[in-house]
Amino acid sequence: MEITPFKAIETRSVGDSGAIGVLNKGIGLLEEPIRHDQVAQRGWNLLREDLTLPAAVLRQDLLEHNLEWMRQFAAAYHARLAPHGKTTMAPRLFSMQLAAGAWGITLATAHQTHVAYAHGVRRVLMANQLIGKPNMALIATLLRDPGFEFYCLIDSAVQVNQIGEYFSRCGLRLNVLLEVGADGGRAGVRTDEQLQSVLGALARWSGTLALCGVEVYEGAVDGEAAIRSLLERTVEVTRQIAAKSLFERSPILLSGAGSAWYDVVAEVFSAGDLASPVETVLRPGCYLTHDIGAYRAAQARILKNNPVARQLGEGLEPALQVWAYVQSIPEPEKAIIGLGRRDAAFDSGLPVPALHFRPGQTAPSPVPGHWALTRIMDQHAYLQVAGRDDIQPGDMIAFNIAHPCLTFDKWRVLALVNRSYDVLDLIETFF
Description:
Layout (H helix, E strand, L loop, with lengths): L35 H4 L15 E5 H17 L3 E2 L9 H9 L5 E3 L2 H9 L4 E7 L3 H11 L5 E6 L2 H14 L3 E7 L11 H12 L5 E8 L7 H20 L8 E5 L5 H9 L7 E5 L11 H12 L1 H5 L8 E12 L2 E4 L14 E6 L7 E2 L5 E5 L4 E4 L11 E5 L4 H4 L4 E5 L5 E6 L3
Parallel strand pairs: 1-17, 2-9, 3-4, 4-5, 5-6, 6-7, 7-8, 8-9
Antiparallel strand pairs: 1-10, 10-11, 10-16, 11-15, 12-13, 12-16, 14-15, 17-18
Helix pairs in contact: 4-5, 6-7, 8-9
């Protein structure tokens, strides 16, 4: 097999994205690219209409609240955090998470790993199988940096042989985690026969592939009972492999947890009582911005059932909003908003109006409880109002969103703002 490594990759410090171009939506008017250290000097303020709307904004104070809340939650279970970077694909937010104590960043693809590395991230857990020669070549290039620590998943003998052959020819050592799965779920070994097949293939690549731990993604399984069963089986698989002294890392990595069930993962893994030293790594991604959809419902369950979460008091707060203008009021009970599918996620529920502001007022006010979006199109949304409501074209509405992953990927730049909506920085994404 011909080895075609990529050229050396130019890197920046963690979170440094260089200059921001002038053609991005949702930012102030620019005649030339702007550096991050110049943004605050502009004195932009969302409420003074210094940004073009629609605009996606991140509340810095709420981001910091969510970071600290999750840090304390993980620490209570002696777990580490490797937040899933696919949610934001924003290196400046990766930097914020690492500065708050994250063990590393989780990513899903070789390309995402490349983006993180190019912005200074030096520990990545790729919660996916490494498949395909171009993807292997990209990771091989990164691994030539001895300061880069990387893990990917394995779940079949065929895949193990593919990566074993490639990295053996490269003369590189690749860290891998065995993925455990469940019937009806996503990837991962289901049976003991599959497990033994993978372990047998690994033995053939001793010196090239290093088994460092076990991983599971519980979010593709329905119901708490089934999730707990999957997690308990993951612990048992880890125990069996440790008993055979097949792990080449100490402590053993044991990783799970999407954004909805991280509490159950922490509970089960912390109670695993493994004889070998274990480093538990939780991988929620959406906690940083939270939302008002499925993750708010999950947080309500966590606060109700988990004693650590209850002790921490107030839970996660939605820190991501999309602001838009009222475009038209063609009917007494219908306002047309300049926000659409190109601006906010709609797969897990429509955006929810939260704040109403008329330029020239002193501060936004909460919207009436009966306001709700009823339909969303590419660039427009239908807002149900009452004929008596004080709303007019040119008013600004802030919307909370459901599913941050599919809102972030609609924006190349999001404004980082304080409580007064002064623009402190611009956060770039790299999807």
